[in-house]
């Protein structure tokens, strides 16, 4: 029997052979039967609030992309739902990590966060991942695990991929705003190939109103196998997309009854292309487990937009003539490798474990920000730079059992980051370099009191790398560092599980999106204090997951935009989420059952603070789906924002001047209205592989 068992922080392999002998029915001796079973386990939790949503939860409500699927994570608020051409605005437990700056994001072993991205350091685009191939979404809250590195400020999100059944998959979807989608997939037959698949998606839409049309396509393939004391997994993902950008409307215009789905002219444009490759090999050696992983990415993204109208000229004291129309482009190449070895030791007990790991990542980034004139030619090159970044890290991770029922997990991680920046806009192309180190300590105390109850306390230190263009020659890299503490309880039995925790974190330097600069800009340090809960129950055909998080986030310092004690803007203080489903056989037609499924997702986000003390508008929406399946065919209908409530997907406060007024108005709220109620109808066909006749030969 081949087993994969959890070994704090990563998946390791352990081989056991179970031989069963049949009773002989003839004098001839029968050979023992060897059964091989592969189980892929998850690492143990590093905090009371760590959580995983499996394919039943992910599939219980409609999701348009992999980014949209992150909504099922307790405490996460994913906005910019109407902007399908860019990474989501991802807030987690009070951290307003615009596009991923404060959340480390992985698809299998591939890191999606982009170093020193022009929009936001840590920018992570998950749109190329189809919801159908997401096997699970797992969140590690806080920086409590030595495996966590750059951008793991609020935590780390992990996507595991897979299709549920062998055979050919085909799915076509039509819906509101002339949305059209085709999904094709294939899973080979046989236990040896159980985690292998290939999938393709293409999607297009006209979008609600004007300025929201676009299309995307993606391909993902996974090869995975396990044999005896070795396992291997690799993923290839390639995608491209292009979508219009409608701009943000003045909130007063919308609230006075203006058409909420109009757009600023000329239209903006979002475009991106992705290519990712990752592989992990594990094997047992000398009584321990060795793992070697590698990844490579090539990503290019571009934003063409005008958020402010004619502000730049007015700010410079000249009559507004040239618009603020500009184009940002970020093109990056990433390669990396990691290795870790884990072995049993006897420190406090025979069950103690020690793991040593090393990690290396190299990024090369070309980025530009170009102001344009009305005919699309260059007005001013605001940014034109090349960044080379090297991240080398090593860590030690331990699992100790000093007394009965108590497990202590933790260790330390040292990261060395080096940057070389060639800035062609204000440094005549001269190269400058900087280097810095971060040492992060992490520890988790896990006490098991019986009946499935674990009391857990965690402490961790993490960091976020800076925007490299801001560094001067010889700088010691000024990391944004976080110290975080959490304590709570986890309970799990056969049909339900729950967690309840309180947490607090101190961030040395925040970053907040500045629409005038069209990028995240430095902000003072901040503190977050909050509580969270999650409850999941399953019995028979029913399943439900309910979660809620409250976070109070304030600045602990002051700068030109914010003052000590101000509420950190844009991230909601309260996030509530409910995902529920019921599925089962409805009737029998012929020899096969008619299978029905209903799923419901509700989310609410409240108490969003805007700069200047203005309250942001609360968010509440309902999504649902219903399917009927018989034999190889499934018919489904799904709806997004079914109550047709008008809420703001994005809210920002800044100065805009689309009337070419030389006297600039004061800052005011600008919004993107989320899509209205949308209905989609899909037809799915699954063709399972036929059982092979051993006497039949392929022609």
Structure explained in plain terms:
The protein has 699 residues and is mainly β. The protein has a 22-stranded antiparallel beta barrel. The protein has a five-stranded mixed sheet with strand order 5-10-11-8-9. Strands 17-37-36 form a three-stranded antiparallel sheet. β26 (480-492) and β27 form a beta hairpin. Residues 1-29 and 694-699 have low confidence and may be disordered.
Question: Brief description of this entry?
Answer:
With 699 residues, the protein is mainly β. It has one domain: Beta Barrel (Maltoporin, Chain A). The protein is built from four helices and 38 strands.
CATH class: Mainly Beta
Secondary-structure arrangement, i.e. CATH architecture: Beta Barrel
The total domain count is 1
What is the overall pLDDT average? 89
SS-based class = mainly beta
Query: What overall form do the CA principal axes indicate?
Result: globular
Beta-strand content estimate: over 45%
Give the CA-CA distance, first to last residue.
Answer: 36 Å
Helix coverage percent? under 10%
Which stretches of 5+ consecutive residues score pLDDT under 50? 1-29, 694-699
Rg, Cα atoms, Å: 26 Å
Subcellular location: Cell outer membrane
Organism: Pendulispora albinea
Main location: membrane
Keywords: Cell outer membrane, Membrane, Receptor, Signal, TonB box, Transmembrane, Transmembrane beta strand, Transport
